[in-house]
């Protein structure tokens, strides 16, 4: 059983990795990964140097289940990075996976997310969308990957206050009839996919969450 001390050790490991991902978000992702079904998949879109990747991978290890974890990133940085010096983060990513002793449960796909769709054949229990944050990119990630998510699976959107991410959430995710729950962990919004249309209570909960999101996260 993972103890508080073990979680503190993961936090210390990830503190040394460059990235924008809090320990609170990491602990939430650790528990989500640990709860995923045996034989399912986890997909991370946007890994950077692996800060969130380590948290997810540690959750998989703690689960002792056979879960395939795909970490998708072209490793050339964002559009902002590409305007300056050439960026290549894959070597650092691999180094960080080795330091955390999780390289055995991480399958890196060095490509853009739409090119990786064909590489993931099993159903996804947890999808983390943290690639490019402009509206079109986030929309394409959601629309392209949503059908691969299992009923009951979870989808997390990092940096939900960014305009492009926020617009996808308010226009497409919250109103979606097969999205039944929504919660926030710091800057990350996490929703659940259902095989049945949301009932009245669930629709009301989503509308309230959407209202709170727009009111307090401007």
In short:
The protein has 218 residues and is α/β, with parallel strands linked by helices. It is built from nine helices and seven strands; from the N terminus they run ααβαβααβαβαβαββα.
Account of the 3D structure:
The chain is an alpha/beta fold and 218 residues long. It is built from nine helices and seven strands; from the N terminus they run ααβαβααβαβαβαββα. Helix 1 packs antiparallel against helix 3 (51-63), helix 2 (23-35) packs parallel to helix 3 (51-63) and helix 7 (135-145) packs across helix 8 (163-173).
Approximately what portion of the residues adopt beta-strand conformation?
A: 15-25%
* Helical content band: 40-55%
Distance between the termini: 40 Å
H/E series, N to C?
HHEHEHHEHEHEHEEH
Q: Main sheet?
A: 7 strands, mixed
Instruction: Give start-end ranges of low-pLDDT stretches.
Output: none
């Amino acid at each position: 059983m993972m103890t508080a001390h073990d979680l503190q050790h993961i936090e210390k490991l990830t503190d040394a990795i460059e990235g924008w991902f809090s320990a609170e978000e990491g602990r939430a992702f650790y528990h989500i990964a640990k709860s995923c079904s045996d034989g399912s998949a986890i997909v991370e879109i946007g890994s950077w140097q692996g800060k969130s990747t380590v948290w997810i991978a540690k959750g998989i290890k703690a689960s002792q289940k056979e879960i395939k974890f795909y970490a998708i990133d072209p490793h050339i940085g964002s559009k902002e990075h590409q305007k300056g010096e050439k960026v290549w983060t894959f070597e650092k990513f691999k180094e960080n996976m080795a330091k955390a002793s999780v390289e055995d449960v991480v399958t890196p796909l060095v490509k853009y997310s739409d090119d990786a769709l064909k590489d993931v054949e099993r159903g996804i229990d947890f999808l983390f969308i943290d690639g490019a944050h402009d509206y079109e990119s986030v929309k394409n990630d959601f629309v392209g990957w949503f059908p691969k998510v299992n009923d009951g699976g979870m989808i997390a959107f990092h940096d939900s206050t960014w305009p492009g991410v926020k617009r996808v959430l308010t226009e497409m995710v919250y109103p979606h009839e097969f999205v039944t729950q929504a919660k926030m962990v710091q800057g990350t919004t996490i929703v659940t996919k259902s095989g049945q249309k949301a009932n009245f209570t669930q629709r009301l909960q989503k509308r309230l969450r959407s209202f709170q999101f727009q009111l307090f996260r401007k």
